[in-house]
Write a structure and sequence with these properties.
mainly alpha, 14 helices, single chain
């Protein structure tokens, strides 16, 4: 199944209220904190930026690898880039009126790689040994599974960004269900979110859970609705408050590229 089909199956293309609903105040989300602090680098904004970097480092790694850097160099450069980003506290290139962490990060890594002196100096200073957590050693295992025909570094960055957002939304929903004691229900219904065409029928799921077919249909609808809300929350962490809907549309385009 293509990524576009998967996106449709999880309800993005059909809406499921993603574009119509408005999530409550996003003024205290990670990227909003970073933007509000600008170049001053308050402890709160630095912590928010670190959390975003920890969550979305892999698209940068994939971008660097697709630019032709070998595995070891890409690993060191990714770590050096994020370490330097946090150390500099320089967010002047982030436009609050078009505030997307995705765009800011891609522009920043382009500039970083273009200035060979900067990144070589960063590596000499030991910037590959950051005090915050990035699971970069796992990056190559993910990278070797990337589609070989996706040659454009920017395309792979965007595609992986979109997939990471979807994955984080699924994990957020999984955690919510676990807290509510609904883990068994979530695991049975999860294929209906991510791969509906190959998911078991509602009747088969009902037999497994001892639920009626109709009750399963209602549960799937509700889970998709909750997934839509979880996806909006994840997107809202990475954009300004008025850009959530536009970023969701971008997500669909990136998955379909």
């Amino acid at each position: 199944m293509s990524l576009v089909d998967r996106a449709k199956n999880i309800g993005l293309a059909r809406g499921l209220t993603l574009m119509e609903e408005r999530t409550a105040d996003f003024s205290t989300t990670h990227w909003s904190l970073v933007l509000c602090a600008g170049g001053d680098g308050t402890p709160e904004s630095r912590d928010a930026l670190a959390k975003l970097c920890e969550a979305y480092w892999y698209p940068v790694y994939a971008y660097i690898r697709r630019r032709g850097y070998p595995t070891e160099d890409a690993r060191d450069l990714t770590q050096a880039f994020f370490t330097r980003l946090l150390e500099k506290r320089d967010l002047r290139s982030a436009d609050p009126t078009r505030g997307r962490f995705r765009s800011f990060l891609l522009t920043a890594v382009r500039h970083f790689l273009a200035n060979e002196f900067d990144w070589r100096a960063a590596l000499k200073r030991g910037a590959g040994h950051a005090t915050f957590s990035l699971e970069i050693d796992s990056g190559e295992n993910r990278y070797i599974r990337e589609p070989p025909d996706l040659l454009d570094p920017e395309k792979i960055f965007e595609r992986r960004w979109a997939m990471d957002l979807l994955g984080r939304a699924v994990e957020s929903l999984r955690a919510d269900c676990a807290r509510a004691g609904d883990s068994r229900l979530f695991e049975a219904l999860r294929p209906c979110l991510t791969d509906a065409k190959s998911a078991p029928s509602h009747r088969a799921i009902g037999e497994h859970l001892e639920m009626s077919e109709g009750a399963v249909g209602v549960a799937v609808h509700r889970l998709r609705h909750r997934f839509g809300a979880a996806l909006r929350r994840e997107v809202a962490q990475t954009v300004s408050a008025d850009a959530v809907d536009d970023e969701l549309r971008y997500l669909l385009r990136a998955l379909g590229s």
